User: Fold these one by one.
Assistant:
Number 1:
Amino acid sequence: MAQPVKFYLVTDTHFRPNSMCENNESYREYMKYEQMCLAENEAILKATFAEIAKDKETNIVIIPGDLSKDGEKQSHVELLKYLDALRQTGKKIYVITARHDFNSNATAFINGGRNPVEGTTKEELLDLYYEYGYSDAIAKHEGSLSYVAQIAPGIRMLALDSDGEPDGKDKGSVNSEILAWAKQQAVEAKNSGNAMFAICHYPILPSSPFFELVKDARLENREEVIETLADNGVNLAFTGHMHIQSANVVKTKNGNAFWDICTSALVGSPAAYRKVEFDGKTADIKTLKVPAFDWDMQGLTNDEYFDRQFECRIKNRIERTLSGKKGFKGVMFALVRRIINSLTLGGIARLSCVRIDKSLRKVKFLDFACKIAINMFRGDAPFVEGTPEYEAVSKVVSRFSFIIKRVEPKISKTKKLDLKQMIFDSIGNNKGFSDNNLTVNL
């Protein structure tokens, strides 16, 4: 067994400096639909890195992609200053890039609006982040930004590029060339007595049951990737992209377990990062929340502040979807909008001819839906069997089971779905282990 190594896992920093977040009308309109806190980004990063720097026993920081907000060159330049400062405290930092890190049409909120700024090509990323994993990599894949690092004696990290090409080809997948190379690296690690884990920006497993239905929410070729990695001794991957706290496990046809630990964006609800201790046989994983940062919180706690932005995004996106239509469709959408905004759980219960707990009857449906979404992204969703919320959802879902059964084959024609179970697994953690704090046995 390798000697334990400790590291911090921080992902989806989506960094954009204050100088590119001017509080103009375009910015305010954009933020109606954004989960992340952009103007606060620099303060959040500064406070988090300061907290990590205090830990003198943990000298490794890993960041699996979406380093910049949208590939602005200046965002990378400014982020590197913070990475350099953290490195000066004795930390070794490893990164992998992602789709938000290169962009030929970058913009920023400057000069009174949302205006073009210098972007970044994918080819430039290697030079920009050369000192953060690539300079001392023991193996590199020549056709991508994938690499292997010996992060400690007996322990290696496999960094997998799932960005695809600038034209969109292979986006959200680990192509066959990278995968063949990764297999060689896994076999070589095992033969040389090294334990190995992986990092990849895209979740390899769907972080939530409903993300099975979202094409951009997990690797396109995940079955192939899982079998290649797990059957060759790489049974654990740390991922990002979906801005969610989750832990999931599957077994390959050969009976080998594969774990995917997805971590939220640092700068948006639930605003978390991880601390991991890994020895090749086990991984002890703890969730840490963004510390207090230098900002006017308007009397709110960190969680309340981040959740308010997330809820704003959900409600405004629904409002936008149901607005702006013309003619008969406009009339119908306006009616639906009014119903959704006024509907309570008690009203749904009456329409469904079921009884729900008295404490829930006056709760607005839209507020409840936002709460479910926020809980799901926070991990360890609390509405499990026995809670009033679970019982309410269960009764309504059972009442409409006949409709759900008809909808299932229309949603997915290639994979059989159990929508009812997907709903229950999304509102409550029924996995038997935590999404946030757990020990993984490999």
Note: Residues 302-321 form the longest helix (20 residues).
Number 2:
Amino acid sequence: MTLSAERSCAKPSADAFEAAARSVMARCDAIAQLTEEPGVVTRTYLSDAMYNLHTMMRTWMRDAGLTVRMDAAANIFGHHRGKSFLSKTFLLGSHLDTVRNAGKYDGVLGVLAAIAVIQLLDDHVFDFGIDVVGFADTEGVRFGRPHLGSMALTGALDRNWLELKDRQGTTLEEAIYNFGLRPEELPFAARRRESLAGCVELHVEQGPVLDQHNAPVGVVTAVSGLTRIDLRIVGQAGHAGVLPMNARKDALAGAADAILAVEACGQKMPGLVATVGEIRCVPNMSSVVPAEVSLVVDIRHEDNAARIHAAEGILAAIQQMVRQRGLGLELLSRDETPAMPLDMDLTGRLIDVIAATGNPVRKLPSGASHDASVMAGFTPTAMLLIRTPGGAGHSPDERVKVEDVAVAIRVLYEFLFQLASA
């Protein structure tokens, strides 16, 4: 195995990779200012903050010599041409949206690092083209469905989801129109399998493993599966100062029991994580016994059968809890994202490059759900993680080191040449 194919450009120096990393970090700082909530980083699908980020991304992509386009799902692409118009396209990138009160690097760092790699190529052209992709929706915060961007690209987007509503009552269809796009063109966002050469997603780890092993980067072997269940617990409103305790049907107290049941179930199975991170209480007033509470249960495991078994157990436990309290339970939705092993060939090539560049090799599953899991069912896909010192994820405490970003950029750069030499 050789690290690189014949190059028409001089290999960048260590200083060049570090300079590229510093530029990526500075751009992450700039992007963090594009937020829906002052003082924190919140950038949801098809929001004004997302629109402003697209404007910024277009500039950076064009400055790198990329041809920019956007599909009807608001995924943005910067294309680096191959040697032929018939060349297949390799995808590099990650997502552009965030959770609420997010870190600065989740998603966007992977897109910016891919742009930096293209700039370092210095007009070198491969037999394959390269699309730097910024997926518009991965977190599913606004409409309650994750991976809308990559699902549109793979043709898996359900047209019925256009009727989904955000908290303000805006439908997904209306939001696409408001963004300046045409939802009727969503079918054209789907790529043909045969047009793609593969995909690598670069992402911050959002966990402590790489930091614990002093590894700047790591390679994902599989992305854990995800079950997301949206429930509504229904009780009866009453005056908090008048209604006797023994006559109450308190939906929030029932939800508290349900949340503890989720936690208890999550602790019983090795490798399982189960979380309730979102609740919506009605009427949400201090003087009123809560009438209803909606909550979202997030269940993950790298084994699909184990995850599904755990989800059934959690649902049964919640049903028992609310029945004992005389409350109602409605299942609003249940979404399943299967665990997905990543491509062994591309993963092996990343491992070879990491070792050849003198860095420790660390392989690990990803408990976080990523666009790579959607793409892996469509085209050969691998995933490179960057160390997160302290292990914080989905948090403003999220950190990365500039020297680790430099390593990741170099690994992706060398990977492209190694792929071209195959």
Note: The longest strand covers residues 225-234.
Number 3:
Amino acid sequence: MNILVSIIIGGIAGWLAGQLMNSKFSIIGNIIIGIVGGFVGGILLGLIGIHGSGLIGNIIVGVVGACALIAAGRAIKK
């Protein structure tokens, strides 16, 4: 059940990050970026002492991490 919830939260976070960063990814791409973004966001926000809890907190952490991944990808691409 936790894996299904992580995929759903990752999909939502990836989609929101794609909308915020104006990127064009497929549904699968959004899910992957959202899930990996959740890990990256947890690390980044954990460094400054912020931790997400609950559904909304996890989505926010995932969005922050996914936006960081998209920004890093764009920087490397240039």
Note: The CA atoms of residues 31 and 68 lie 15 Å apart.
Number 4:
Amino acid sequence: MSKRDYYEVLGVDKSATEREIKKAYKRLAMKYHPDRTQGDKAMEEKFKEVQEAHEMLTDSQKRAAYDQYGHAGVDPNRGGGGGQGGDFGDIFGDVFGDIFGGGRGGGGRQSRARQGSDLRYNLELSLEEAVRGKSVEIRVPTLVGCESCDGSGAKKGSSPTTCPTCHGQGQVQMRQGFFAVQQTCPTCSGRGKIISDPCKPCHGQGRVEKTKTLSVKVPAGVDTGDRIRLSGEGEAGEMGAPAGDLYVQVHVRDHKIFTREGNNLYCEVPLSFTRAALGGEIEVPTLEGKVKLKVTAETQTGKMFRLRNKGVKSVRSGSVGDLICKVVIETPVNLSTRQKELLDELEDSMGKGKDVAKNRPKESGFFDGVKKFFDDLTN
């Protein structure tokens, strides 16, 4: 049985943030957890499916590979991953620990400063730019580490101190009758440290708003929907934690002449009915310039001509697509008196009745079919 799409499993869009993915995972993990479903095998399989989707989509490298190549780009059977043999107890503790502010058991977990969020930048390119590749400069508003305090949030010359309430754990234990519930420390908000003398430029946050200018190398052959990952160029993490990544989302603008499908290019080529009837060479456009195309005699409108290796070079495999030209026969307009006379002479020369079939077989076949249709109606 083929695997379901990871985003579909979690019920989120492909543009979902890591926070949205984790939220969806927690909800589904609680719903399908074996401790709740009383040994229901179908629910257990769904739980494993949710685990696997969560693992893949919360790992930025695995998610990028999956977005680009689907299930073929990731290995869900690597040791302990993909929901194959994960420990239900540990997952149960993680899910409910996050909700109630702590894990199972009496001891609280060590709190960590949060990693910076991933960012997305939409990059528009012309077809020529996408096919050939280029380097572009982009400006991205983001949060960067404060230079004054080196991201610690404490005034230069001072440093954060261990929270006296939770003793650096980021959590405190509250007893309610027979139950002991872990909660986020109200003094340090779960960070485990407090800042007595905050840095003025960042107001103790360790991060400041800034617009960064970045150079992005766009590889040749990219297409709409492709993403370019810039590691560590997302938002700075809290209190010196690692930064997130920046994903440059590519969108290729429509072209006046060509339409792209995969690595192939398509275009419509207008052709006079005389050239279509007699055949010959015509000039057609490609992304590298004009080339000669040999049109066979008696060409009909809609016929496709393929020019090998005149399409797009694949950004992944390196193979080159083709240019496919669709011929559209153009009816002449604004005819002079003499031109009309010549066309009448041509029409007369082709004959009438049964003689039409020789030069215009489709027309003859059509009207023969119409005649038969009405004859059948009257009989």
Note: The chain has eleven helices and 15 strands.
